[in-house]
Amino acid sequence: MLHIVKSLGMLEQASRLYSEGDTLLLIEDAIYASSAKHKQYQLIASCNTCVLEEDLAARGYLDFASESCQIVNYVGFVNLTVEHDSSMTWG
To answer: Within a 10 A sphere around the Cβ of 87, how many other Cβ atoms?
Structure first.
């Protein structure tokens, strides 16, 4: 499953339902958790996590995303939706 997480407030719920083979995609304000210094980073540290490049850039956060997170553009976002049988968006 692809978990598309839009807000920091929903990250904890999404991480609880994360299973092996799933991917977390952080977009909008959820991208802040991609920094290893963020208090919610531990929720995603062991997950297969991607972060939307355009949202990182829009928030001046490109240099802060952890190396454990894969940065993807919109084409990568589309590819993730194709690769996963199902997706859930967490507002």
So the answer is: 14
CA distance 51 to 61: 11
pTM of the shown model: 0.96
Q: Considering just the CA atoms, what is the radius of gyration of the chain in Å?
A: 12
- Cα diameter, the chain: 32
**Interval 51-74: pLDDT, tens:** 999 999 999 999 999 999 999 999
Closest CA to 65 of 18, 91, 27: 27
Query: Residue 35 phi/psi, 5° resolution?
Result: -85, 130
- CA triple 23-13-87, angle to 5 deg: 40
Span 2-34, pLDDT tens digits: 999 999 999 999 999 999 999 999 999 999 999
Strands 49-52 and 70-72: parallel
